[in-house]
Amino acid sequence: FPATQPHCSTATADASDAEFLQDVLAGLSKSQKHLPCKYFYDERGSKLFDQICELDSYYPTRTETGIMVDNAEAIGRRLGPEAVLVEYGSGSSTKTRQLLDHLQNPTAYIPVDISEDHLLATAERLKADYPDLDIHPIVADFTQGFEIPTAYRNSQLTVYFPGSTIGNLEPDAAIELLRTIARQCDSHGGLLIGVDLDKAEQVLLDAYDDDLGVTAEFNLNLLHRINRQLNGNFAVDKFRHVAIYNAAKARIEIYLESHCAQTVAIGDAQFTFAEGERILTEYSHKYDVSSFADLARHAGLSVDEVWTDPRDYFAVMHFSA
Length: 321
Ligand code: AVJ
Hints:
It holds the Pfam family Methyltransf_33. Its EC number is 2.1.1.44. Keywords: Methyltransferase, Transferase. One of its GO terms (biological process) is methylation. The protein is α/β, with parallel strands linked by helices. It has ten helices and 13 strands. It has helices at residues 9-29, 43-54, 59-70, 72-79, 94-100, 116-129, 171-185, 201-208, 214-230, 289-298; strands spanning 84-88, 108-113, 134-135, 138-139, 157-161, 190-196, 239-246, 251-258, 262-266, 269-273, 278-285, 302-308, 314-320. The strands form three sheets. Strands 1, 2, 3, 4, 5, 6, 12 and 13 form an eight-stranded mixed β-sheet that branches. Strand 9 (262-266) and strand 10 (269-273) form a beta hairpin. Helix 2 (43-54) packs antiparallel against helix 9. It is globular, with a radius of gyration of 20 Å. It starts with 8 loop residues before the first helix and ends with a strand. Bound molecules: N,N,N-trimethyl-histidine. N,N,N-trimethyl-histidine (AVJ) binds at residues 52, 60, 163-165, 167-168, 208, 215, 282, 284.
C-alpha cells in the first residue's frame, strides 16, 4: 500500500517499481499495446505537464482557473466554513491556492498524488504560505484507494478533483471512482470537480498536439522512464506522438507510434513493433454538463451547482452524495 510518510519513500519506490514493471509488461503484451497514463508523472513528466498547462493551445487549465476566479465567492459559499479538502491528483496545487484563498477559515488540506517528490515539495511550499492550514500529503494512486488520516475521518470532507483528470477513465471506471468519492464525502460533504466539455475537433487536436512539441515530449517521456527505471532499450526517436479525436466516444486518444518495424527489450522481455504500430497511452474523455451529471447520478451523486466559462469549454461542478 502506498506510504503516506516521507520516511517510507524507499519502500514506496521499490514497491511501485515492481508494479510499474508488471503494468508495462502486461500492457505491451496485449494485441492493442497500451501503457497506463498514470506513469506519465515521474519528476520530469510532472514538470512537462506543468509546461503543457502554460501552453496557449492547452485551454483546460486556463479556462478552469478562470471559472474558479470568476466564481470564487459562490464556490466558497458552497463549500462553507472550516472546509477539509481532499484533492485527487494534486500535482502542483496551483488551482487549489485560488480555492483556499476564497474559503472561510479552511481547516485542512490533504493533497493526494502519485508523484512523491513533486507532491512533498509542493506541500512544503504550501505549508510556508498557509501556516494555519493543516497540510497532510498522501502519496498514492487515488484509483487504488487510500486512507483518510484518522483526525479527519469524521469530518465533512470536500473532495476536490480538478483538471478533468476524471476524463482519463472510461465511463464505467469513472462511475466506480465517483462511487468511492461519494462514500468518502458521505452525506455531509461534497465533490467539487472539473470536467472538460466536448467541443470542436480542431480545438481539441491543437490542445493535445501542440506546435512546440511539449505534449509530444510528455508522451515520449514515458519511454525514457521505462528505459531508465525498468532497464528498457526503447529508441525513443523511433516513436512519435499521435493524438486523434474519437467522435463516437467523445474522447481524445493519445498514442506512441513506431516509425519502423523494431524490437524493444525491457529487462529480459522482448516486444516487437510493426511499422506504424501504436501504443495507446491516454484517453481524455469529453462530456457535456448533462452527460456528466447523468454519469455521476449512477454513482449516487446529485448535482448542486455548475459553473462554466463563456465559451462552454469547461465546467466546474459541485455534487452531494
Ligand atoms: C491531466 C488528464 C487532465 O487529459 O488533458 C494533457 C493530461 N495529456 N495533455 C488531459 C494531458 C496530454 C490531462 N489530464
